[in-house]
Amino acid sequence: MPIDTRSYQGGDEAQILSLWQKALPMDPIAPETFYQKFLLDPNFDAEATRVATDGHRIVGFTQAMVRKVPLGGDLEPDLGWITALLVDPQYRRRDLGRTLLSQAEAYLKRQGRARVEFSSYAPNYVVPGVDEAAYPGANAFFARAGYHLLYSCVAMDRNLVPYSMPQSVTTLRARLEQEGVLFEPISPKYYVALLDFTQKEFYGDWTRALCEALTAQVPPSQLYLCRQADTILGFAMFGAYDRSFDRFGPFGVAANERGRGLGKVLLHLVLEEQKRQQCHSSWFLWTGEKSPAGHLYRAAGFEVSRRFDILGKVLR
Q: Is 62 helix (H, G, I), strand (E, B) or coil?
């Protein structure tokens, strides 16, 4: 039978999950995570979620996304995303991936989007971009479709088995505390102040992640604040994303407070707490390798585990 394409239908989930494991072996996904990130996202649209079928067998899948619900107050009306694109290995080199990609792009154009990015959709990305080492040829496939590199990022991991708080960080913390800076687990008194701080200083997704973590009653020991009097200067936490207890972040310091060592102390306080709570390692998915944050992580013993390319295309 000829290969056909259609919109997602209820009942496709088991076959999509089976396809996912075959097509993306470096990035297996649990059913609950798939439901959360793809079917239960508030911006989900069945029309934008496409499957390719050979008879009754699903052999390809893609999903496009536009914001109907703002993130951090922004609908990003010019931008759309393709959150995933996968083809059964036995069905590759038949233009099936290109067909699905074109259908996803056509949906975004109908929604008035001028630009598209692959995989970097917040909050529900699985990985932030293309891992060429894991999936050779993926970058070339997207290049043929008109995509170009926007920027690259890295995932990093830190083995906590040999970790202990460096004396230099203990000394730095003591000096900062003499200057009136406090480092402490969060308390309800600072919930609103922290959310206001992240909304002002960082990404809408961080405010969402923090709000969800606090609503889920993440223990205070997993979220450290840095403040001077009642002014929030920075924060760091773990266990905020995807039920991953050992996942570090979000983490940030106010732009006008950077360079003082606040981030270094916050980072090590969280690493110490993760080890105290029996985490074997600490990891995260997304930072610039050469950025100030990337250098800070390197100095704290993190190593690059994966590299990702964030790709984009102008649609009109």
A: strand
